[in-house]
Amino acid sequence: MQIGLIGLGKMGGNMRERIRLAGHTVVGYDRSPDLSDVKDLTELVEQLQAPRIVWVMVPAGAATQSVVDELGGLLEAGDVVVDGGNSRWTDDEKHAAELGAKGIGFVDAGVSGGVWGLQNGYALMVGGDKEHVERLQPIFEALKPEGPYGYVHAGKVGAGHFSKMVHNGIEYAMMQAYAEGWELLEKVDSVENVREVYRSWQDGTVIRSWLLDLAVNALDEDEHLDKLRGWAQDSGEGRWTVEAAVDHAVPLPAITASLFARFASRQDDSPQMKMIAALRNQFGGHAVESTKE
Fold first, then answer.
1. Mean of per-residue pLDDT scores for the chain
2. Which ranges carry the 6-phosphogluconate dehydrogenase C-terminal domain (predicted)?
3. What is the b/e burial string over 126-155, where b = at least 16 CB atoms within 10 angstroms of the residue's CB?
4. How do the domains of the chain map onto residue ranges?
5. What strand order describes the sheet that includes 123-127?
6. Helix 253-265 vs helix 237-248: crossing angle, to nearest 10
7. Architecture in CATH of 2-157
């Protein structure tokens, strides 16, 4: 199967490799010539046989809108565009309507897996019409983890990114809980080996998880996280989750508090945010701020 892939950064580049390892042909484009297979989107579209599938992995907002606009002028009726970035679900509805007016299908795919996706596979939450989703099934199978789980056709256009948004909101709250527990353990004189306490939780406890494993990885690299500044960015999905909760009158106290904690981190050098920053770097390769020497 052929597919075009736009955006070959930390996730997109690994996705290209995983799809190719499954035996499919990927024509990739990136603004960096060192990463790109073609010089521009026109050449990418020309190298694909109709009906075409083009997967977009660029930042949400203006960057995604620009690519969708350009593809709308290059693709033909019967082609399908997939937005696999972290776009807001309301943007999906807009993009589907714009492309649909030209006979071009649209699918939104919430993708989770970070920098570990090449090795472990990507969890995929997909929204769109059944006929478009079914055409993409071989690509979804190539990207998802082995086994029966890790993929869902969540519903209509927007459902994939809405599901991924809620996933990330839950992620915020889980990281915050691990971070608060770590700070409290560090403060108590009687606990002399916090890292090994966290390691002891990895087997047999009800709070074991991949995030806990990554926390231990981070502590192995920097036992007291002294090299990190207590500052953590929010990527947008946490805010959108809280806004959606307000719109639907759904109480989200844990997720909301975890979002506000990140805002607080930008005012002080928060010990908890050192753990949040370390975890975000572990699973997603997100930038961290180092303490000044």
1. 94
2. 160-293
3. bbbbeebbebbebbbebbbbeeeebbbbbe
4. 2-157, 164-284
5. 25-29, 2-6, 53-56, 80-83, 105-112, 123-127, 151-155
6. 140
7. 3-Layer(aba) Sandwich (3.40)
pTM, entire model:
0.88
For domain 164-284, give the CATH number. Answer: 1.10.1040.10
- Could you list the active site residues? 164, 171
Backbone angles phi, psi at 119, to 5 degrees: -80, -45
Contact between 104 and 95 (Cβ < 8 Å): no
Beta strands in the chain (DSSP E): 2-6, 25-29, 53-56, 80-83, 105-112, 123-127, 151-155
Specify the pLDDT at position 268: 67
Please tell me the predicted confidence (pLDDT) of residue 286.
78
Dihedral, CA atoms, 38, 17, 8, 168, nearest 10 degrees?
A: 150
Sign of the CA dihedral with 210 first, then 212, 272, and 283 last: negative
Residue 293, pLDDT > 50, answer no
Tell me how far apart the alpha carbons of residues 178 and 221 are, in angstroms, rounded to a whole number.
17
